[in-house]
Amino acid sequence: MLFDDAPPVLQAATVLAGVPDGDAAADPAQWAVFDLEGRVVWFGDYDSDGNEEYVLSHTAGGGVAQFRDGQWRYTPLLTGEPIVAAFPAQRNGQPTLIVVYRNGALEAIRLAR
Fold first, then answer.
1. Taking Cα atoms as reference points, which of 101, 96, 95 lies closest to residue 77?
2. How many Å apart are CA 41 and CA 60, to the nearest integer?
3. How many Å apart are CA 18 and CA 20, to the nearest integer?
4. What is the rounded distance in angstroms from the CA atom of residue 49 to the CA atom of residue 89?
5. Residues 6+ apart with CB under 8 A from 13
6. Per-residue pLDDT tens for 9-31?
């Protein structure tokens, strides 16, 4: 969602909803909601563990969010540049998420379980 009247510091915000399994999925009061500054650049299950990852970018960098075991986990990335792209790949036979920053830097990451 873009905010036309927002100051340059905040151009986008993202709200992610984690929907539990079973009957609780029909009750929004039981959903885990996670909101943060930034926009989703990529999402998918890069490591085929059954949990989707969301790469988010904002003006001071970005991070990876994942809904697992009924709660959101967010891992901030240390490079302080906005993320312009992300994509899954194989590196040394292991699933890896490649993150591309606005300054041209590349980072290969894997999330610990």
1. 101
2. 15
3. 6
4. 15
5. 1, 3, 35, 36, 37, 38
6. 545 678 888 888 888 888 888 88
